Amino acid sequence: KNVRISVIGDKSKLPKSLQESIATAEDTTRGNTGLHLMMALNYSGRYDIMKASRSIASKVKDGFLQVEDINETLFQNELETKCVEFPNPDLLIRTSGEQRINNFFLWQLAYSEVYFPEKKFPDFEEKDFIGALSSFQKRNRRYGGNE
What we know:
This protein has helices at about 15-30, 45-60, 70-75, 125-135; strands at about 5-10, 35-40, 90-95, 115. The chain has three domains: about 1-40, no CATH class; about 45-85, no CATH class; about 90-135, no CATH class. Strand 1 (about 5-10), helix 1 and strand 2 form a beta-alpha-beta unit. By secondary structure, it is of the alpha/beta class. The protein contains four helices and four strands; from the N terminus they run βαβααββα. The strands form two sheets. It has a two-stranded parallel sheet with strand order 1-2. A two-stranded parallel ribbon has the order 3-4.
């Protein structure tokens, strides 16, 4: 079906057989150009930021980067979502009435709009999704210092 599969998160904590299956799925579908399915397994926004920071620090230490080279683009390219074309969501729909993002995409959600419907995910229907999109369309998006 031309679907590319990517899995983000700390895969080292997953069973070896699952790690091998993930690697096979990612390698097999890497060249696919249709839908890009990204799954987060054992993913944490804090872990993602720490991993990116360590990678950059290591590159500076080894002389591949200068401290002055570090900017938002470089940092973003070290995050797990570097595998997708659009890593920063415009809209996060957080179902179940919870009004928190739960350590998810802490960097990537900086300028995202957030929608908090009361319904739990299994009950979230097409009409609810349309309601979320309608709410999003009415918002005046602002991007802080990046406007």
